[in-house]
Amino acid sequence: PALSRLTDRELEVFRLIGRGLSSKEIAHHLHLSIKTIGTYRERIKEKLHIKHATELVRCAVHWTQAEEGGGGRLSE
Predict the structure, then answer these.
(1) In whole angstroms, what separates CA 28 from the centre of its chain?
(2) How far is residue 44's CA from residue 5's CA, in Å, rounded to a whole number?
(3) Residue 20: half-sphere exposure toward Cβ, Cα within 13 Å
(4) How far apart are CA 15 and CA 13, in angstroms?
(5) For the segment 27-71, what is each residue's pLDDT rounded down to a tens digit?
(6) Helix count and strand count (H, E) for the chain
C-alpha cells in the first residue's frame, strides 16, 4: 500500500486533510506552524507521487471516507 511509506505524523496530516481541515486548522490542531504543515503536505505528495494539491485532497478524502467506512486502503 502506498500509505505504508508515510510516517505516523504524515499519516495524521493526511487524515486531517481528508476530513476537510485547512493547513491552518491542521497546524492549530497539532500545535505546529503552518509552514511545517506545508512541508508535511509536500512530503506526502512526493511519497504518493501526487503532483497537485487538489489531487492530494481528493485522495485524502477518498481514503478517509473508506477508512471510516470499513478500513479502506489507498494503493497505486
Answers:
(1) 16
(2) 9
(3) 1
(4) 5
(5) 999 999 999 999 999 999 999 999 999 999 999 999 999 988 755
(6) 4, 0
